[in-house]
Amino acid sequence: MKHKLKLILPNKKYATSYLKMEKEFRAEGSKTASRGMDLFKSLKDFSLYNRKMINDRRGINLEKGRVPATLYWAVVGNKIVGRLDIRHRLNKNLRIIGGHIGYAVAPSERKKGYATEMLRLGLKKTKQLGIKKALITCDEGNIASRKVIEKNGGVLGNKIKVKGVCKLRFWIRNIL
Q: Residues in domain N-acetyltransferase (predicted)?
C-alpha cells in the first residue's frame, strides 16, 4: 500500500468519493448496498444520511431486526476504497449469517491488500466494544474473502446452507 489505510466515520469531506464507490458497486451488480444508501443519493443528502449513521451507532430508531452498528469508510490518501460495518452485538439472524463485521472493497481497488487491512483495523474496533470473539461470514465461493478472514486469524467454525448458498462461519479471537 502506497498510502496508509485508515477507517473513518462518514465525513462530508469524502462524501463524493464514497458516492463514486457505491456507484461502482451498483455498476458491478452488487446486491449489498451499504446501510443508509436509500437516503444518500447526492451530496445534499449527506446530513440526513450521517444522522442515520449516528443513530445506528447509538442504537436509536433502529429498524426491526437491526442491532446497533457502526459504519466505517476505508480511506487511502483522499479516496474511499471500501466500507466496513461493525455490528455491536449479534441477534438471531446475525448469529447465523452476517456476524460482527461485514466489509466490501470497491471493485477498482481490489487485490491491493485493502480488505485484509480493513478487517485487521475492524477487529481492533470490535475489541474496543468488548467483543472477545468475532463472527465473520462469507460465501463458500468467495475465496478472496476467505483468505482475508484467515489472514486475520479466522478459524472455520462450520458451513451452513442459506437459500441454497453455502456460507462459511469463521471465528476470530480478539487478542490483537
A: 23-176
